[in-house]
Specification:
Elements: E1 3-7, E2 10-12, E3 18-25, E4 36-42, E5 49-55, E6 61-62, E7 71-76, E8 81-86, E9 95-102, H1 105-114, E10 122-123, E11 127-131
Parallel strand pairs: 2-11
Antiparallel strand pairs: 1-3, 3-8, 4-5, 4-9, 5-6, 7-8, 9-10, 9-11
C-alpha cells in the first residue's frame, strides 16, 4: 500500500523559509508509467493550488509562475523523499500543504500547472504552514 507522509510545516515569520518533506513508502509504479510527485496547498475557503511537481524517472521539475521564484522541489532517492524548499514566505502562503503521488506524470503535471482534476494514487495527510509575525 502506497503511503505519503509530509512533515516540516510550522509557524514562520514573513520573509522566512521552510523545507517540507514528503516520504513515500510502499509499492510504486514502474518507471515505464512515468510517475511523479506533486505538491499542493489549500487555504481555508480557497481552491486547491498546485505548487510544483517532479518526475520520478528523470527528476524534471515544474513550477507555476506564481511560486517559481521562491519554491524549489528536490528529491532524495536514497530516502524516498521529496522536498519543497520555500523561501521569502508571505502571509498569503499560509495553508495546509500536501504531497501526492501520481502514476501518470503527464496528469500530475496538468494537475499542478493547470488545476486539472486527476485521481492521484495517494495523498499525504497534509502539514500546516502559517506565515505570521
Amino acid at each position: 500500500q502506497l503511503r505519503l507522509v509530509e512533515s516540516g510545516g510550522g509557524l514562520v515569520q514573513p520573509g522566512g523559509s521552510l523545507r517540507l518533506s514528503c516520504v513515500v513508502s510502499g509499492s510504486t509504479s514502474a518507471q515505464l508509467d512515468a510517475p511523479a510527485i506533486g505538491w499542493f496547498r489549500q487555504a481555508p475557503g480557497k481552491e486547491r493550488e498546485g505548487l510544483s511537481c517532479i518526475s520520478l524517472n528523470d527528476d524534471k521539475k515544474y513550477y507555476p509562475d506564481s511560486v517559481k521564484a521562491r519554491f524549489t522541489i528536490s528529491r532524495d532517492k536514497a530516502k524516498n523523499t521529496v522536498h519543497l524548499e520555500m523561501n521569502s514566505l508571505k502571509p498569503e502562503d499560509t495553508a495546509v500543504y500536501y504531497c501526492a503521488y501520481g502514476s501518470t506524470g503527464r496528469k500530475v503535471y496538468e494537475g499542478v500547472m493547470y488545476g486539472t482534476r486527476y485521481d492521484f494514487d495517494a495523498w499525504g495527510q497534509g502539514t500546516q504552514v502559517t506565515v505570521s509575525s
